[in-house]
Amino acid sequence: MEFMLSEEQRMLQESVVGYLESHCPLDRVRKAADAGETIANDVSDGLGELGIPGIVVPEDYGGVGLGFLEAALVAEALGGAVAPVPYSATSIMAPVAVLAGGSDRQRDEWLPKIASGETIVAVGVNEQVGRRESEGILASQDALSGKAMFVLEGMEADAYLIADSSGALHMIAGDAQGLERTKLKTIDRTRSVVEISLNATPAEVLANTTSSREPLLATIDAGRLMLAADTLGAAQAMLDQSVAYAKERRQFNRPIGSFQAVKHMCAEMAAELEPCRSLVWYAAHSVRAIPEEARLMICHAKAHLSEVGRFVARTATEVHGGMGFTDLLGLHYWFKRIGFNRQLLGAPELVREEAARVQGLVG
214-358: which CATH topology? Predict the structure, then answer.
């Protein structure tokens, strides 16, 4: 039995990593963040040429038709580069929702536009994970009213996929009447997150989501998996930078990497992070190969990567000493991205409770 990536999967991984290294260095990330850009369009266009927007969209709809393991490899690369591009919502969560919950007509309408990169679809399902003060989104006669918080990739979106209070999913045009979007200032400056206010806004419900919550749950699962993979990539980048810095930085005429305390810090990060790669890859593989295990494994991956990511982010900053807090190194871009991933679509405590529920351990 083969437990490694296939040759095609390695080629995909190398292609995306190579592209991001040459087209999305830290200077490009910093430029986008300083300018308040929600999307680095040049980077996003290049990923479009590689077929990334349609990675999980079936070939019949103009996509690449790959699986969730391949999608996780891309998310890992994007996290490693802290790339300011739409992906988790537009390229993964939205197609999953349309495939699972849309009618044939809705699939024909939306999937080709997503696969081509023509349409950015923001996704707002966070109210189904942890609702705050508002009552969420209420549906009435093909219209929605209410507020949705933490809508991912929402500032430049051409359409919005929003869950109402019952769990049904609706598509809303970006210029629909009664729709207002407010950019939220989160710690992560590499991604766009908005609050959506709807006032009797026209919306089209995905046909198969009114009678079943499964499309909603599949959409949330897909988002959590991509966030876990993104954290894996970001944490690996912080570890790699720490090791490189420890080899170069000298104190008392010696590289700090020769000091036992620094060696132990780097070794601990590596020991904690390496098993996470297998966990994320297995969770991604299970979506199609072992669907009865997928939700549980995705919950484990999201919760565990949240904890390990935070540990690596903190420890990597400590290895860099005072330089770790400066903008010169830019370590904070990875640190904050990991922190944002931790909270979006459920903090570890909430996700672990859901894993227990999946196993029938709690009511």
Answer: Butyryl-CoA Dehydrogenase, subunit A; domain 3 (1.20.140)
Q: What's the Cα-to-Cα distance from 300 to each of 181, 234, 281, rounded to whole Å?
A: 33, 18, 12
C-alpha 317/C-alpha 320 separation (Å) is: 5
> What contacts 104, CB < 8 A, 6 or more positions away?
none
Burial profile 113-143: b = 16 or more Cβ within 10 angstroms, e = fewer:
bbbbbebbbbbbbbbbbeeeeeebbebeeeb
Residue 227 near residue 188, CB atoms below 8 Å: no
Rounded CA gap, 30 and 9, in Å?
Answer: 30
Which of 352, 281, 242 lies closest to 75, judged by CA? 281
The pLDDT-based confidence of 95 (bands split at 50, 70, 90) is very high
- pTM for the whole structure: 0.95
- Overall fold of domain 121-209: Butyryl-CoA Dehydrogenase, subunit A; domain 2 (2.40.110)
pLDDT-derived band at 123 (thresholds 50, 70, 90) equals: very high
Between the two ends of the chain, the Cα-to-Cα distance in Å is: 38
